[in-house]
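A protein record pairs a chain with a discrete description of its three-dimensional fold. The following entry can be read in just this way:
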Amino acid sequence: MNTIYKWSIAALMCVASASGTQAAGILRGAITETSTKQALIGAELTVFRQGEQTPLISTFTDEWGAFEFELEEGWYRVACSYLDFKPVVQDSVQVLESNTLELAISLGEREPQELEGVVVVGSAKKNSVEALYVQQQNA
């Protein structure tokens, strides 16, 4: 019994020390429109390790234009894009272990984009009670 207890403690200590090897910091902030200072909901943020082309992680801003990443200590490049705005890239963003870095990004230069047409398709079950009721109301 005593041996099992000792091995359990040793295993828990190994797991705890292994999980602590990746030091993390927080990168958070908000995206706003330059002239109105309003939050941009749904702006896309992509994080790259400095000097690399492959995206590390990506997210969209929330209803307050806010975002948050938990990243290992290091140097990063942050790209932000939003429909009808020219993308913004911030290089040399340093995240430090156990620290929070606040990053405010403002998009102002417009870059209008032409979008493809949208096709809306609908269907209804013709044999259901609800469908018959809707048909009766529309008649």
Remarks:
- The radius of gyration is 25 Å.
